Amino acid sequence: MIHIGQLIETELHNQERSVTWFANKLYCDRTNVYSIFKRQSIDTEQLLRISIILKYNFFKYYLEEYNECEKNSTIL
């Protein structure tokens, strides 16, 4: 299963961006950013905003999981 919050946190650190910078771009408090990092799932509109801010397609993880499930004929 995908833990999208961890993936977002990892990418933010890979880009050497601060939580404060990210919170400012999302127009939220730093505490909200830490809450995002803990989430296993996320609203698609928010994920799109995050993808645009970080210039990184987080949807690809869901597509990969979908393709793997389809290939194996499994249902989550």
Figure out the total of helices.
5
- The radius of gyration is 13 Å
Task: Please state the average pLDDT score.
Answer: 95
CATH architecture, please? Orthogonal Bundle
The coarse overall form would be elongated
Order of helices and strands: HHHHH
Describe this structure in words.
The protein has a single domain, classed as 434 Repressor (Amino-terminal Domain), CATH 1.10.260. The protein is 68% helix and 0% strand. The protein has five helices and no strands. It is elongated. The mean pLDDT is 95.
Report a brief summary of the structure.
This protein is mainly α.
Topology (SSEs and partners):
Blueprint: H1 4-14, H2 19-26, H3 30-37, H4 44-54, H5 59-72
Helix pairs in contact: 2-3
Provide keyphrases for this structure.
mainly alpha, single chain, 76 residues, 434 Repressor (Amino-terminal Domain)
